[in-house]
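so my prof wants the structure for this chain in the tokens format not the other one, which i didnt know existed until like an hour ago. anyway here's the sequence
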Amino acid sequence: SQMCCVSMPRKWHPGLTVVVEWEKDPSPFDSATWAVPRFSDAWHQKMEEQEAEYTRHRVVVEVAPYDELGVIDVHFLPCDQIAVAAVAQLPGKPGYPFSYPRKMEVPPVCPAP
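here's what i got, hopefully its the right format
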């Protein structure tokens, strides 16, 4: 839910990469079932415990080719795969480099990195 700081060249070139770092909550919906008042001291304590379980990820990923620099889109895919586009086109429109479905199934076993 947070993005910060990307500098991209106006012209794409082969080998253009970006570093993507993120945290992942292994149980993102658990807080909805906690039997404590939201934002209470007990809730904050449970949140700290849950945040300790977050996994941290970092990958260097190639940026899809672009003719005109546009908005940076980072696609978080199953198995902690990442795809990055920087085109002046919206996802789903002609000319967008990726056509991922809205909902993707996570395979029972992810391929080795």
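also thought this was worth mentioning. Residues 49 and 107 are 28 Å apart (CA to CA).
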